[in-house]
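Entry 14. Structure prediction run on the chain below.
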Amino acid sequence: MRRVVIFIASAFALFLFTGLALLWLLFRTPSPPQPKFGFKGNWRLPDVSGFEERQLPPARELWQDYTSWGDATTNKARRRLYLARLGGATNQLGFSSSISSGDTPMGAQQYTHVEFAYTDPTNGTYILSWMLRGKHSTTFLRIGATYRLYQLEPYGTLGSYPPRFSIVGIEGIKPTY
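Output returned:
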């Protein structure tokens, strides 16, 4: 009798474990893959309404340029992004990354955040930030000797200094990130 009880309990535990594993595989929200350089296609952000790009102005003139650009834009639905060629490891200061988590209707989610200052010798200092769902290595955001194009979207209070930007696209990285 004892063997029968152990057999039934083992079968029930196996059934329960298998069922929970299948539920986890079917309904979990997976993290997107790790961003990495090497993408050869169009790295710019796809947008339904399109976007306009301008070269990044000096930091002190950014908000004046951004407001005048908004007045001159004919299609107000388009996103306004700045394009900057960034490089040189000594220009990147205060690199910090963190991972946060929280509950959402789709379950517990993790987000990777990065923020750093970028000092251009002629244009001044900018604060750049990046965020992506999931737990990621942020080594690809370390600026090295190679100069790459970045799509940047300003955010924050008009007139704040140094201006803050969200990194929207990076040359060589697939735009789904």
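The longest strand covers residues 107-120.
Filed with the rest of this week's runs.
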